[in-house]
Prior knowledge:
Blueprint: H1 2-30, H2 50-60, H3 63-94, H4 98-108, H5 117-126, H6 133-156, H7 161-169, H8 174-185, H9 187-202, H10 206-211, H11 219-228, H12 236-268
Helix pairs in contact: 1-12, 2-12, 3-6, 3-9, 3-11, 6-9, 6-12, 7-8, 9-12, 11-12
Amino acid sequence: MIKRIIQPIGAVLLALVIVGIPLWTVxxxxxxxxxxxxxxxxxxxxxxxxxxxISTVIxxxxxxxxxxxxxxxxxxxxxxxxxxxxxxxxxLARRKGKLVSVIxxxxxxxxxxxxxxxxLVLLLRQLGLAGxxxxxxxxxxxxxxxxxxxxxxxxxxxxxxxLEEAARIDGAGPMRVFLKVILPLLRPVLATAxxxxxxxxxxxxxxAFFVVGGRMDTLPLNLFTVASAGVHLNNWHLIFTYVLLxxxxxxxxxxxxxxxxxxxxxxxxxx
Length: 271
């Protein structure tokens, strides 16, 4: 009885420490003046000036263009990787054999093996895609396709094949079976994959810096430029305000898909 009470309380306290304190620090620092924010901490500001800091960030940085740049990379990357990954996962889940097992192992190897940035940039240069948004989108699709394959393949294996057989008896072809039978059932796991991939792409600064850095603004790249500028070195209140504005779309996306995230993770992990 005591164990049942202590475990949820411990989980909540751990979540507050790991997630709550950083979020609170960002929020209160974004609402402080420059003098108060010189040493970021969790104390409340004497006078909230969050809206003033937001106006300053919007007027003094290229956050608007950075938002457009991030969305321009995020939306196509997520859509393409979900379409290709879900279709590939359906085939891998229904086919049997050693060759399929090898292909599946290669497909999910990207989760463990990170792409080599030097090789990636050289390859994109050979293809004429370096420095272009299409090259960055292709890089994201290749990097995060393994995540979709891992989650969706496990989920499809839990779907009874009798549903597909009934659709085939009614005269449905492979594409129609996928679109009408399989795809609607994949909503929970696709919602989970959407959150994960969006989080990776939205916050990516490492690969974007080497592929499109200097040629296109994204939020992480623009934040790096703002934080590195001499005039902003001590303006922690503006930097944390930028971080707060940058986090809003991901938080909204999480709220929209929160009901599907847990079911997608648990179902997709089934092998």
